């Protein structure tokens, strides 16, 4: 079957999709967007978390056909998504990663210390700065979930953070630095707002 | 980089890249430099092994046995092979050479089962198809007829008279000294006279402990891509802990010389020991060579539970004696580790369990024995803490019991018996670097305790999220009691018992765009621990450059050894440091040649490279590196070794077996709902000596991660094997539970830095020690809260409620 939906602000089409294929598979293997991770494909770890019409979902549990005509944001689009949110929205259909671009996917060397070559969402920068990334396999799913939390609640308590991220497993960090990262992003957000005199 | 021969295969469309870090980066060792791969990892661009992708690749799938021990009567692959989209189906009969087994130390593991299967989930056949689902469906059409055989599942069935032999034709070098062919290895440690010393004891305490089978549960599944080359060789992109160990095992099975199996490390989503053994490596190569097409294999979570070895479950019998004034008199203990169907790292795990069985305490008279069994249970091997974890669980429970019997404070009792620099280990080896056991306990005890009843919120009653049971809203605080427990542990660092534990580093220094740049190339597996960060820090410190490029790890450079045993920063970090020192000497040599006549300091002063310049130890600048290196590059590849170790005597266990020890102490605070048997860990504080924190941010992250894995095994993690069928009952994240952010408390960490003069920068391996003591600390706290004995991991509600 053919599935047409929006990924990171761009309309995409996938052809010859099997009935049983998950959104995760279509993103990773057909659209060249491997950022969403395949750690359990059982809905237990949250590594594959994406936004579907704004709602965080485990993309491994969503059948590809279910996303027909809908809107998906993955970790690859998180920086754009956050920037557009900050700027007050996206003129739909023109922002984000195109399929051509996506399929040309190549890891590009960057400088993570300075972020010189990359534009990151605040939560992404906070994960780097707080040391919340070790192997990083859980990171994309955590970032999407944490970004959604901060969108809803710009000064979450620790209990709020734990509740929001309880569907995302991390085996490396012990979560302490992930908490630090979310606190850091929230604090920077507040500073930013205060700086604007809002 | 020069010297890299042209690839015989076409590179995948998605593959690992260089990591370059420079700019305003905080520089050298001791700084909390951020990860050079951080940006790639937060943007989803980092190429993990399961992300490898090649234009016209096929998907491989492994068919695994549904029974634990059986003869294979027949395999029929015809229908599978006839499935549209299937390119190849392989069984044992298709293996290309006479080498059909592999293994880390003992080559007893079949690439594909031949004649019989020895454990549930053993690989039997392989399929390559154009879609993963096609491969899976075709595999389901392979018909296998099994004739089940009697099972070996524990020590009693393994050594019973007439017991079936798991490996009926053993020829390995341990067979000569083991008491039974179903025992992989046995290591006694006898020192002093435990029986005689026991007579001096005023109290004697014994206990029997059971440690469950833990899984590494790294998040990135076993996966990789094999690309056939035009020269008949193969390029393999894979997540592993030790490329060269894989290579040594893969090449003979494929019938290829090692140069024709070119391995590149692709992004590793955690390892924790679970990637020391091969998983899909040979399978993908076989399928790629057979089909002539790139083949990708990615395990799903279910298969991952069968795709790697687990932590050895153990039964431990311990007897300690002590005098009235609190001095330990002796230790007798016996540790039985279940190694499962194949040897994997069992011999080394036995060596660690026995030599560290006494813990970080002074006990002169010991009688220790550790064995590992062959059984039809899942194979067990390396996991963080490696043999020391199981022992620590038992000896720390014993310490509390002895202290209680003596009426002493458990921490003071431990401190009274704590080892220190100069203590002689039960192996006869003197401890020749700081061993601050009493100090770590003091520090962890001195941390402020979390306030009581934190779940009581002002005015609003209880915040159920902070209570045992959490959001399931099972209690509002009634029946909740608090307990506090302590534990400390000792772990060896590096490979022991005479292993030639070396690493290789290649460092190049040159001027690019007017800037001095260092390139570091090693075969070290970055599994998340942060080796890439530390290597760049070392290069900056030693070479005075800002910009450092870390090349992807591959087999084009010499072996780095394994990313395990807390050894990688010590050994490959040591290799990078050593190579940088030689590069520095050559750079200075060039400087002397070019500029030596201009300033006498070139010949007379101690010279350093700092801030892109050659400076004297007095701080005088002699030249810029850009001027010195202009047009020239220095490029060296060198091996580096730590101090040698010795094998342990097979009868007495005596020998200088370990190169370094690391120590961590924990204090656990728990709240237990005694009615429902639910445990909430409130805080798990840790104090650890790291010798020298090369990157404090990463050090703390490692300690917190290790602590959480120990917490997991204390209260939730266990692979459950049905004792009647030897089948795994819970191979999923639904049924095998690892701690979530709700299960994990705050983990304050106190880092102590007492340099080990024998180690590079004085550092001490850190990755494993925190995994040891966190489990017994949690158990001690639950015992403190409930008054129950609790001698098994994990503690389940039924153990607390007696139901
Ligand atoms: S991969 Fe989707 S929840 Fe684990
Ligand atoms: S950083 Fe490895 S799983 Fe979270």
Summarize the structure.
Chain A contains seven helices and five strands, in the order E-E-H-E-E-E-H-H-H-H-H-H.
Which key terms come to mind for this protein?
heterodimer; A: 198 residues; alpha+beta; DNA polymerase, domain 1; five-stranded mixed beta sheet; 7 helices; 37% helix; 11% strand; B: 803 residues; Aldehyde Oxidoreductase, domain 4; 19 helices
Please characterize this protein's 3D structure.
- The complex is a heterodimer of chains A (198) and B (803).
- With 198 residues, chain A is of the alpha+beta class.
- Chain A has helices at 23-30, 78-87, 99-103, 122-130, 139-152, 158-164, 176-195, and strands spanning 3-7, 10-14, 49-52, 55-58, 71-73.
- In chain A, strand 3 (49-52) and strand 4 form a beta hairpin.
- In chain A, helix 4 packs across helix 7 (176-195).
- The longest helix of chain A has 20 residues, at 176-195.
- Chain A is globular.
- Chain A starts with a strand and ends with a helix.
- Chain B is of the alpha+beta class and 803 residues long.
- Among the domains of chain B are: 20-47 and 502-641, Aldehyde oxidase/xanthine dehydrogenase, molybdopterin binding domain (Aldehyde Oxidoreductase, domain 4); 50-149 and 221-268 and 275-307, Aldehyde oxidase/xanthine dehydrogenase, a/b hammerhead (Aldehyde Oxidoreductase, domain 3, Alpha-Beta Complex), CATH 3.90.1170.50; 435-489 and 659-801, Aldehyde Oxidoreductase, domain 4.
- Chain B is built from 19 helices and 33 strands.
- Chain B has a seven-stranded mixed β-sheet with strand order 4-8-2-15-12-13-14, with helices on both faces. A five-stranded mixed β-sheet of chain B has the order 1-26-25-24-30.
- In chain B, helix 13 links the parallel strand 25 (515-521) and strand 26.
- In chain B, helix 10 runs parallel beside helix 18, helix 13 runs parallel beside helix 14 (568-595) and helix 17 (696-715) crosses helix 18.
- The radius of gyration of chain B is 27 Å and the shape is globular.
- The chains are: A alpha+beta (198), B alpha+beta (803).
- At the A-B interface, helix 4, helix 5, helix 6 and helix 7 of A face strand 1, helix 1 and helix 17 of B.
- Bound molecules: FE2/S2 (inorganic) cluster (2 copies).
- One FE2/S2 (inorganic) cluster sits between chains A (134-138, 170-173) and B (219, 270, 528).
- Chain B: It holds the Pfam family MoCoBD_2.
């Amino acid at each position: 079957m053919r599935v047409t939906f929006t990924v990171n602000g761009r309309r995409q089409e996938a052809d010859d999709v099997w009935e049983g294929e998950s959104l995760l598979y279509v993103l990773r293997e057909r659209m060249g967007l491997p950022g969403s991770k395949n750690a359990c494909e059982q809905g237990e770890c949250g590594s594959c978390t994406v936004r579907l019409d704004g709602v965080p979902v485990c993309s491994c549990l969503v059948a590809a056909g279910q996303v027909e005509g809908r809107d998906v944001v993955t970790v690859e689009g998180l920086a754009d998504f956050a920037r557009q949110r900050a700027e007050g929205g996206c003129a739909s259909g023109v922002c984000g990663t195109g399929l051509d671009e996506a399929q040309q996917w190549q890891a590009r060397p960057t400088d993570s210390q300075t972020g010189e070559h990359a534009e990151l969402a605040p939560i992404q920068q906070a994960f780097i700065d707080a040391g919340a990334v070790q192997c990083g396999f859980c990171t994309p799913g955590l970032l999407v979930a944490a970004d959604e939390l901060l969108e809803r609640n710009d000064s979450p308590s620790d209990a709020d953070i734990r509740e929001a991220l309880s569907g995302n497993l991390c085996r490396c960090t012990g979560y302490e630095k992930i908490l630090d990262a979310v606190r850091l992003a929230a604090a920077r957000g507040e500073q930013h707002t205060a700086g604007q005199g809002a | 980089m020069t010297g890299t021969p042209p690839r015989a295969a076409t590179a995948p469309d998605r593959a690992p890249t260089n990591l370059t870090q420079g700019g305003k980066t905080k520089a050298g060792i001791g700084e909390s430099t951020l990860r050079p791969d951080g940006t790639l990892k937060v943007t989803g661009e980092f190429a993990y092994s399961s992300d490898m992708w090649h234009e016209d690749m096929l998907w491989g799938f492994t068919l695994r046995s549904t029974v634990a021990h059986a003869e294979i009567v027949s395999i029929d692959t015809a229908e599978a092979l006839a499935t549209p989209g299937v390119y190849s189906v392989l069984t044992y009969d298709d293996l290309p050479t006479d080498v059909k087994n592999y293994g880390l130390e003992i080559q007893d593991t079949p690439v594909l089962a031949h004649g019989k299967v020895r454990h549930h989930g053993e690989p039997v056949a392989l399929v390559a198809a154009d879609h993963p689902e096609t491969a899976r469906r075709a595999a389901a059409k392979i018909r296998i007829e099994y004739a089940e055989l009697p099972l070996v599942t524990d020590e009693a069935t393994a050594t019973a008279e007439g017991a079936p032999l798991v490996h009926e034709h053993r020829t390995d070098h341990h067979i000569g000294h083991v008491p039974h062919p179903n025992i992989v290895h046995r290591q006694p440690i006898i020192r002093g006279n435990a029986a005689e010393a026991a007579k001096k004891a005023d109290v004697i305490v014994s206990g029997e402990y059971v440690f469950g089978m833990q899984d590494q549960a790294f998040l990135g599944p076993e996966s990789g891509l094999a690309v056939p080359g035009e020269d008949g060789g193969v390029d393999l992109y894979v997540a592993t802990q030790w490329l060269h160990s894989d290579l040594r095992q893969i090449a003979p099975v494929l019938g290829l010389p090692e140069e024709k199996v070119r391995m590149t490390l692709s992004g590793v989503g955690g390892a924790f020991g679970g990637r020391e053994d091969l998983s899909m490596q040979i399978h993908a190569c076989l399928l790629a060579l057979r089909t002539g097409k790139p083949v990708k294999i990615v395990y799903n979570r279910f298969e991952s539970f069968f795709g790697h070895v687990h932590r050895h479950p153990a039964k431990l019998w311990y007897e300690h004696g002590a005098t009235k004034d609190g001095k330990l008199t002796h230790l007798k203990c016996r540790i039985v580790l279940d190694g499962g169907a194949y040897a994997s790292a069992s011999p080394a795990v036995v060596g660690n369990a026995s030599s560290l069985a006494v813990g970080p305490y002074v006990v002169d008279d010991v009688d220790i024995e550790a064995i590992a069994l062959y059984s039809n249970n899942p194979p067990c091997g390396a996991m963080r803490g490696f043999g020391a974890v199981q022992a620590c669980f038992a000896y720390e429970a014993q310490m509390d019991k002895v202290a209680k019997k003596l009426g002493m404070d458990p921490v003071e009792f431990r401190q009274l018996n704590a080892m220190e620099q100069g203590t002689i280990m039960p192996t006869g080896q003197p401890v020749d670097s700081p061993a601050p056991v009493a100090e770590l306990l003091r520090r962890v005890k001195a941390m402020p305790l979390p306030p009581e009843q934190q779940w009581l919120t002002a005015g609003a009653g209880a915040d159920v999220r902070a209570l045992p049971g959490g959001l399931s809203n099972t209690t509002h605080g009634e029946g909740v009691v608090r307990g506090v427990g302590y534990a400390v542990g000792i772990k060896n660092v590096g490979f022991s018992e005479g292993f030639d534990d070396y690493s290789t580093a290649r460092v190049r220094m040159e001027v690019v765009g007017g800037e001095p740049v260092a390139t570091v190339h090693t075969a070290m597996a970055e599994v998340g621990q942060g080796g890439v960060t530390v290597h760049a820090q070392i290069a900056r410190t030693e070479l005075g450059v800002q910009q450092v490029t870390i090349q992807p790890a591959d087999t084009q450079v010499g072996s780095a050894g394994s990313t395990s045993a807390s050894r990688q920063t010590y050994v490959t970090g040591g290799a990078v440091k050593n190579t940088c020192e030689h590069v520095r000497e050559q750079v200075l040599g060039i400087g002397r040649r070019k500029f030596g006549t201009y300033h006498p300091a070139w010949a007379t002063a101690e010279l350093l490279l700092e801030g892109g310049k050659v400076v004297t130890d007095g701080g005088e600048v002699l030249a810029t590196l850009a001027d010195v290196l202009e047009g020239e590059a220095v490029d060296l590849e060198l091996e580096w070794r730590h101090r040698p170790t010795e094998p342990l005597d097979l009868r007495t266990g005596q020998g200088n077996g370990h190169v370094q020890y690391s120590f961590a102490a924990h204090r656990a605070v728990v709240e237990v709902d005694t009615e429902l048997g639910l445990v909430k860990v409130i805080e798990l504080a840790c104090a650890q000596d790291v010798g020298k924190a090369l990157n404090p941010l990463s050090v703390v992250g490692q300690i917190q991660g290790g602590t959480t894995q120990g917490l997991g095994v204390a209260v939730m993690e266990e692979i459950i094997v049905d004792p009647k069928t030897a089948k795994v009952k819970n191979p999923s994240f639904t049924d095998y539970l690892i701690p979530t952010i709700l299960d994990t408390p705050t983990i304050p960490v106190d880092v102590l830095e007492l340099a080990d003069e024998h180690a590079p920068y004085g550092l001490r391996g850190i990755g494993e020690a925190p995994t040891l003591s966190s489990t017994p600390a949690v158990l001690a706290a639950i015992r403190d809260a409930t008054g129950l004995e609790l001698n098994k991991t994990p503690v389940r509600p039924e153990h607390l409620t007696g139901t």
